[in-house]
Amino acid sequence: MVELKNEKIAIPVVLFAGLLWSFGPLVVRYMNDPHMVPWQYIFGRGLTIFILLNLYLYFEEGMNFYKNYKKIGKSGLIGGLGLGIAMISFIYSITNTSAAITLLCLAAMPFFTALLAFLFLKEKISLSVWISIFIATIGIIMAIGNPGKNSLIGFIFGIASSVGFSVFSVTLRWRKETPKFTTVAVAGLFCFVLAALMILIKNQPFFSTSYNSTMFSLHGTLVCLGLILYSIGSKAIPAAELTLLSLTEVIGGIFWVWLPLFGINEIPSSNTIIGGFFLFVSLFYYSLIMRWNKRHIALN
Fold this sequence. Notes:
The protein is mainly α and 300 residues long. 75% of the residues lie in helices and 0% in strands.
């Protein structure tokens, strides 16, 4: 696998990965009634992710890439399941609330990861990290404001998506030798198979309109390309910078659906903006703590 050891080159690579991910909410907003075809979306996106990641592994490792599946173990299966649930929860979140609230829920992932690592891996949480988690909690509560029924459902699924991603992250710490891309491919396969079963049970067509199917695949492609770029650049960047760089997905995602040029005009509420500010402060503080601890993270 290609690795960048020069931080000056790795930073724009990771920034571009976050930029690719940030277009996800915009793609969802361009779909025709995505709330009416969630399982078709999950089916198309999961299949795209599974195929593209296996193609990438094939070109990286040759015909022996399939042997990674033999090494996946319990941690890979749990991580794939968590990531699959995160992917499924995402569509239910963003179709029931604003993109801003969904993305702010996802931005809280580092704190859920810290809590799960504390509970299951016995990793200690310092007082400073507890403070940042407390600030983030205030931000999330303020961001949701006084929600309607649908908005509350979207918020709950947003939190579920963030927790699912955190489960994936914790499994990477549990067994670091687990093939990371293979775990993500398993998540895509899980989404694909579960969606296929739900579609059969509901007696629905496997594919939506050709336009929607294209959007489903486009979103899956953005996820894959961003993941590959992020993984390539992540080993050369300290965790502090990675945490801050990951905010490009949140900020960009909120900006694209608001920008009048794209025709969505989804303006965040005052509560969401204030809550987002608290969350960004907590992330910045969390990043400084990680910098002081000189910790590094990576997907590969």
